[in-house]
Amino acid sequence: MKPIKPHSINELMQRVSNISGLTLGQLASHYQFKTPEHLLKEKGWTGQLIEYALGATAGSKPTPDFEELGIELKTLPISYKGKPLETTFVSVTPLLNVTGMTWQQSNVRKKLNHVLWLPILGERDIVPFDRTIGSGFLWQPSAEQDAQLQRDWEEQMELIALGRIDEISGHLGDAMQIRPKAANSRIVTDAIGPNGQIIKTLPRGFYLKTSFTGQILKQQFQL
Question: Per-residue pLDDT tens for 123-165?
Fold first, then answer.
């Protein structure tokens, strides 16, 4: 039976507590989800399973996963030592009509305003079925973290507005980077070119760097 959406933060966190310590395989079996042998071709599988089990409602809409609670869910694969194993996708990067956009109104800020982090032991030598779900926790950016994210957002969005998208690489940003987000290089979208003309380029996404999510884990678990 599909779980209904949680009606309060307490109810959501009770569900988070209930799945803590289970393996992805145990949770998947409970809801008759098929567990893939590896996640290379099914990168979103873990997130979809957890969203389903916790009763998330947003689907692919650009709103937080638990719309009425204003909470975004982020699964975070971690190593045996509790360090993030990969960057965290936040949202698609707008590439057109970006002049006049502000950090305060951006999708990124809305998504990161209140996050439910769910660490999952994700070392590559553990098959998806046996990966353990850790203790989920709620997080809101401190004033310092918000300012750091705003700086990264503004610096990179300015390059997009100036038609300098090709200068953006994963090295930019202290906390957050922009990088291509496409299943393959045949998928292209419109962006602003060097002389203001429309060019074709790969879709881009905002990703939190592992150094930033590692700090969040440190704060939470006093690692």
Answer: 989 998 899 999 999 999 999 999 999 999 999 999 999 999 9
**Is 199 buried (19+), middle (13-18) or exposed (0-12) by CB count in 10 A?**
middle
Q: How far apart are the first and last CA of the chain?
A: 38
Q: Confirm if 118 and 74 have CB atoms less than 8 A apart.
A: yes
pLDDT at res. 58: 67
Give the burial string for 100-117 (b: 16+ CB within 10 Å, else e).
Answer: ebebeebbbbbbbebbbb
Alpha-carbon distance of 6 to 100, in angstroms, equals 36
Q: Are strands 115-121 and 72-78 parallel, antiparallel or unpaired?
A: parallel
What is the pTM for the complete model shown?
A: 0.92
Coil vs helix vs strand at 182 = coil
User: Which of 209, 176, 204, 212 has the alpha carbon at shortest distance from 98?
Assistant: 204
Least confident of 30-44, 53-67, 78-92: 30-44
> Using H for helix, E for strand and C for coil, what is the string for 97-149?
CCCCCCHHHCHHHHHHCCEEEEEEECCCCCCHHHCEECCCEEECCCHHHHHHH
- Helix, strand, coil abundance in the chain, percent, nearest 5: 35, 20, 45
